[in-house]
Amino acid sequence: MITGYYCTNIFSEQAKELITFYREILEIPFIKTDVDDSNGVYLGFIENEPTICI
Question: In angstroms, rounded to a whole number, what is the distance separating the alpha carbons of residues 33 and 28?
């Protein structure tokens, strides 16, 4: 049984372009980053809710 949902991971060889698309075209802001602005980036609208992780 699923009891929670944290994020959707998206892996890409073109991560920087994908991040640019989500931030600039879809206007989804950074929630946090684990490493830097091109690796381990979490995008979403509300903290502590499911995010997109690139």
Answer: 14
